[in-house]
Amino acid sequence: MKPAAFAYTAASTLEDALRELAAAPEESHVLAGGQSLVLEMNHRAVRPTRLVDINTVPHLGLLQTDDAPDDGARLRVGPLVRHRAFEQPVDEGPLGRLLALAAHCLAHPPIRARGTMLGSLAYAHPTAEWPTLAVTLGAELDLRSVLGHRTLAAEEFLAGPFTTALAPGEMLTEARFPVLPSATGVAFLEHRPTAAGFAVLSVAVALRVADGTVVDARIGLAGAAPRPVRAPAAEGLLTGRPPTDEAITEAAAASAETVADPPADPPAGIPFRQHAVRVLTQRALHRARDDLTERT
Amino acid sequence: MRITLTVNGEERRLDVEPRRTLADALREDCGLTGTHLGCEHGACGACTVQVDGTAVRGCLLFAVQCDGSTVRTVEGLAAADGTPHPLQTAFSHEHALQCGFCSPGFLMLTAAALDEDPAVADDPDRLRELLASNLCRCTGYAAIRRAVRRAAGSGGTEPPAG
Q: Locate the FAD-binding PCMH-type domain: which residues (chain A) (predicted)?
């Protein structure tokens, strides 16, 4: 199908883009990579009457690590950083590895050449890779409009399937991921029936270990709830213990309890999702432990 | 809107509606019907063309976004004297097509990938990831894999499994 008619503006600066959005906030949409937006427009599932193209704005491809004044380094990601930028690790540590694992699960090379991380966060598909990692790692997101600027945790930003905290006229201008300490093992696994389409479920894991004991466990699940969530009970079972097979098995079983009100599409019942979450979490925790031992 | 594209080396001045996708602009406004449209939502890859050297979905990009860009389609793959591109020769040798509907997309996808890094043909995992971008309902992909390897000079046979 073909999209409905719309007016097109190529923005020259970020301020210009925000002004254009503010001119008709309810009818306008930011066009970045367009790899979800344009297909939704082709289906006429969304019908913005104005598109504000930001591909013409210079300096939106920021991708760099900054030391935050108070608590450690952050990877800063601008609105025009394409998925493919993460295929090779963007830093030498576990964050770069984890982002690369997810990047290779994400669609396929031509889509990754155009689509953007911030676009994927704004689209908020319930099992998309970047929202899952943003929640797992506690990323911060900057939202900007002509009225001002605010920062939200990814958890607050993602409200549900295809639903975010973005108000009309606002756009995402930066995502910041905390850089993971080197003694962190990471894994990312998906369950998907075919290479095409989105995953039914995915699990992201970051296990930080000191002196043989887990000091920070992060387990993020997509496809378990209306939006990506962490599995606090499972994380609690791992923290303060060595990452033994037994601890991993217990944590994986606890992760299945996170399943509640999962997305309707693709169809998969709650018992199946619980089972699959347990199996995937167990595998991911083993992989994260292996990732750590391979590097220390 | 008035835009200018350089398509297969030729400058094209077009007047298109913003909603015109690049694939439709190539087919309808440039008369280059070698670019095929299958699903029109980015899944099948039949419309894959190169924009400034990168393989992209022609159905998920508006022509107005490509103003000033260089576009290469399957019609621009052969040399000016008509000599087929090595991938076209290899697709023929290895029977990497049957109905041919997906071939333009596969050719533009794999030509861009080999231009960027010919070593992709020698890495079974990377080659699988690349070819999973597009759909072919006829060949089962094995012949397409062989063709890409042949065109890259890696021979048409499969590397050992694992």
A: 1-182
